[in-house]
Amino acid sequence: MKNGKIIWSDVASVCGIQLPFIKYQMTQDRIYTTRGIVALQEEEILLYRILDISLTIGLIERLTKTGTITLHTNDVSCSKLILSGIKNPREVRKMISEAVEGARIETGVRGKEMFGAEFK
Questions:
Q1: How far apart (Å, rounded) are the C-alpha atoms in residues 13 and 85?
Q2: Which one of 5, 42, 48, 72 is at 20 to 30 Å from 80 when CA atoms are compared?
């Protein structure tokens, strides 16, 4: 499933308790999410398709040093990917942002290719 070297991975956590059935991984060109215990749901997003990255840190999340990162994409099957319960969310947001720029440079995608893309 995962192509390339994993440069970041995490397991979601709520109130400091890890939820091993929600996993996140990022390679140089993709982000993967896996959710579920019995039935698994997997998502794969090409990094260059990410249009915007937002970060939300609520009160409980501030206490547990976690946050929620929302990725708005121009991917047809997944226009919004929510990464919840992320440890060190500001560092991860920066890492994702840098990886997105690197992926765009690598693939030769520029802003004009994203023109007209919408996110919800």
A1: 5
A2: 5
Encode pLDDT of 76-105 as tens digits: 888 999 999 999 999 999 999 999 999 999
Q: Quote the CA–CA distance of 40 and 113 in Å, as a whole number.
A: 33
**And the tokens for 49?**
């398709």
DSSP per residue, 57-105: --HHHHHHTEEEEEEEE--SS-SEEEEEEEESHHHHHHHHHHHHHHHHH
Q: Are strands 50-56 and 41-46 parallel, antiparallel or unpaired?
A: unpaired
Give the residue with greater pLDDT, 31 vs 119. 31
Judge whether 53 and 97 are in contact, CB under 8 Å.
yes
Q: What are phi and psi of 71, to 5 degrees?
A: -105, 120
